[in-house]
Design goal:
This protein is α+β, with helices and mostly antiparallel strands. 50% of the residues lie in helices and 15% in strands. It has 10 helices and 10 strands. It has a 4-stranded mixed sheet with strand order 1-4-5-8. A 4-stranded antiparallel sheet has the order 2-3-7-6, with no helix packed on it. A hairpin with a 2-residue loop joins strand 9 and strand 10. Helix 4 packs antiparallel against helix 5. It binds flavin-adenine dinucleotide (FAD). The site of flavin-adenine dinucleotide has 19 residues, from strand 1, strand 3 and helix 10.
């Protein structure tokens, strides 16, 4: 595994591990006030220098360029401690990366530093009631009027809806061109016409909801890139961040394995510890092996990203697909090893069982990752020659 890392990645891992130990594992965090907790986490992660890894150095970030390995290390360790801490960090990355990727100097200087410092929370608004996996079907319109655009439409499943100060919003400026007519806009939460429609409760704590744009007017200065660049910006963002979802899955799975190891060494049945039964040992061995394979795929994809390798898209999809599916199986086995205790509300494995599920859905479902992988296998550009 060390093959993928430089010394500063190792020191980042040590720092975030110590942070998680102090601020999450030993303190314990409540699920009662999800939004309040997410706000606190965003501020803490910004203050303690971890959100700096989502933006380039010239705009308050930690490095000259954003590195996928940093993001993966941070997400793995945060997810080990708390899925909400991971999601809070991930949203600062997802909501700011389109600006880092396609923003002009003035946009980056204005919007990135407050996100890096944890003073402003970020959101990425792509999904709509009729446009989930098929993002090019989005119906939100942005109509140009002089030096401004008026946005109209509904977005759902938007993480940080109602909490974010800065939204990156994808809307069509030319519906006839379908995907090529989509543009990206920075929309401040304070803009009249940006309305929180619903807070959606998920099976695991995560601030999310639906927002509406009701003739929400934004200046032309808030257009990211050129008209029609929106889909490229959205997919470019997801290409970088997809392997980090796999890293979060690795963090949850590592925690599940640790819980299973701990429990199987202490729980006694038939006069022995569970860990002494070969049936349990086989489960532990399978869990550890799948975890190791997932980690390798995730950090390989992150390493390819940081080296600018064109195989990134395919490898990143493989990493997300395998790691999230494997994490689901690992968490399920960890719960099984806990027996009845595993389904008692509030136990770590019960929480992990709820936390792990959405990773197979957001930022491209497992089925969509398979389509991406198959397309790249079948295309001349990135096909079998590179396997
Ligand atoms: C926790 C969480 C956080 C999220 N955060 C955000 C966010 O911040 N911003 C944002 O914009 N969105 C966000 N989303 C939305 C998420 O990206 C979508 O839910 C996801 O892309 C799937 O879209 P959908 O739910 O509409 O499902 P659909 O697209 O309706 O898919 C339903 C099912 O059909 C399958 N399917 C669809 N098309 C195909 C096909 N061609 N071949 C085979 N199977 C197919 C899917 O894989 C899935 O199993 C979030 C979702 C969750 C759960």
């Amino acid at each position: 595994m060390d093959f993928f890392f430089e010394p500063d990645h190792r020191s980042l891992r040590e720092r975030i591990r110590a942070w998680v130990e102090k601020n999450i594992l030993s303190e314990g965090r409540s699920e009662a006030d999800v939004e309040g907790e997410a706000r606190k986490l965003a501020a803490q992660l910004g203050r303690d220098g971890f959100t700096a890894y989502v933006a380039p150095e010239s705009f308050g970030g930690a490095r000259a360029k954003v590195q996928a390995r940093d993001l993966c290390i941070l997400r793995e360790e945060l997810a080990y401690g708390s899925a909400l801490a991971d999601a809070t960090f991930a949203m600062q990355a997802l909501g700011s990366y389109p600006i880092a990727l396609a923003g002009n100097e003035a946009q980056k200087a204005r919007y990135l530093p407050p996100i890096v410092r944890g003073e402003v929370m970020a959101a990425f608004a792509l999904t709509e009631p009729q446009a989930g996996s098929d993002v090019s079907a989005l119906e939100t319109r942005a109509v140009k009027r002089g030096e401004e655009y008026a946005l109209t439409g509904i977005k759902r499943f938007i993480s940080n809806a109602g909490l974010a100060g800065t939204y990156v919003v994808f809307a069509s400026t030319d519906p006839e061109k379908k995907g090529k007519g989509i543009s990206a806009f920075i929309v401040e939460a304070s803009r009249p016409g940006l309305v929180l429609k619903e807070k959606t409760r998920l099976i695991s704590p995560h601030p999310i909801g639906a927002i509406a744009f009701e003739e929400c007017v934004v200046p032309q200065a808030n257009l990211l890139g050129q008209e029609g660049d929106g889909l490229k910006i959205a997919l470019g963002t997801l290409d970088t961040l997809r392997c980090t979802v796999g890293a979060a899955a690795v963090g949850l799975a590592r925690r599940a394995l640790a819980e299973a190891l701990g429990y199987s060494r202490t729980r006694r049945q038939f006069g022995r510890e569970l860990a002494q039964f070969q049936g349990i040992q086989f489960k532990l061995a399978d869990m550890a092996t799948e975890l190791e394979a997932a980690r390798l795929l995730v950090y390989q994809a992150a390493w390819l990203h940081d080296g600018g390798d064109r195989r990134l898209k395919q490898k990143s999809s493989m990493a997300k697909l395998f790691a999230t599916e494997a994490a689901q199986r690992i968490v399920d086995q960890a719960l099984q090893i806990h027996g009845g205790i595993g389904v008692v509300e509030g136990t770590p494995v019960e929480r992990l069982y709820r936390d792990v599920r959405s990773l197979r859905i957001y930022e491209g479902t497992s089925e969509i990752q398979k389509l991406v992988i198959a397309r790249s296998l079948l295309s001349d550009a990135t096909g079998n020659r590179q396997q």
